[in-house]
User: Which sequence fits this backbone?
């Protein structure tokens, strides 16, 4: 898919799939990096490492990929040339951590300090990192890139999305199910080395994997503008220790 086509897909549907973004060597390097984190990092395991927050701090290989030409080619047509990564998370589905994720939007961002600003809130702390729900305009100006390190189809928990739902802005939780009931969904099957691009406000969900094995995804959030009122993205901080997630929802 050409960069112009990706932008058209993102604008219309809120997501796009691009295969062969990472080479087999890129995938191997990332898997080795994640394996080192699992062995050497201060992590807790449930039959294996299944999710890691603050991945940009924990892995130089992930940082390199986030700034790589192959990822820039995907993101630049959407956000312009001055974009930067603001969050990185590893997701995996293994027999001991094979969860179902209900329909939701990704509505929080990671920041350094609590700064009172109009439209920001509520606040929360996830894995020792401050998070806040920003105005919809902030989320609408971001894009997420999910890099797949394993083949990911419907049978092993591929993301399911409601095309075009990103155009609705922030959707109250009590309206999500009715929108789901009245909408068609798309299954985002992606092969190893491929990428799923999506807007954070796109309604999405995933089912448990139907067979044992990995479904490793490096989820990268990108933005292209500073936050208001002196607030700073967490990625602008001095690298902190990475930590473990207890579920897949990025919001």
Assistant:
């Amino acid at each position: 898919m050409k960069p112009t086509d990706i932008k058209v897909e993102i604008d219309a549907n809120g997501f796009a799939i691009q295969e062969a973004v990472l080479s087999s060597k890129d995938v191997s390097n990332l898997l080795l990096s994640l394996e080192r984190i699992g062995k050497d990092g201060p992590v807790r395991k449930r039959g294996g490492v299944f999710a890691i927050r603050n991945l940009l701090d924990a892995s130089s290989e992930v940082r390199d990929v986030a700034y790589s030409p192959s990822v820039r080619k995907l993101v630049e047509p959407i956000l312009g040339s001055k974009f930067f990564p603001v969050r990185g998370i590893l997701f995996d589905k293994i027999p001991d951590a094979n969860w179902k994720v209900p329909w939701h939007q990704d509505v929080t961002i990671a920041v350094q300090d609590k700064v009172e600003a109009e439209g920001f809130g509520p606040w929360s702390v996830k894995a020792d990192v401050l998070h806040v729900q920003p105005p919809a305009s902030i989320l609408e100006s971001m894009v997420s890139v999910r890099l797949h390190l394993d083949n990911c189809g419907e049978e092993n928990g591929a993301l399911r999305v409601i095309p075009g739902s990103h155009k609705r802005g922030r959707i109250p939780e009590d309206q999500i199910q009715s929108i789901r009931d009245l909408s068609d969904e798309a299954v985002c099957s992606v092969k190893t080395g491929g990428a799923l691009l999506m807007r954070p406000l796109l309604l999405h969900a995933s089912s448990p994997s139907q067979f044992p094995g990995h479904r490793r995804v490096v989820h990268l959030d990108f933005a292209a503008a500073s936050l208001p009122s002196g607030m700073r993205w967490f990625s602008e901080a001095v690298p902190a220790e990475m930590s473990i997630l207890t579920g897949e929802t990025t919001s």
Q: What stands out?
A: The chain is about 25% helix and 25% strand. Residues 3-244 form a domain with the Jelly Rolls fold (CATH 2.60.120.620).
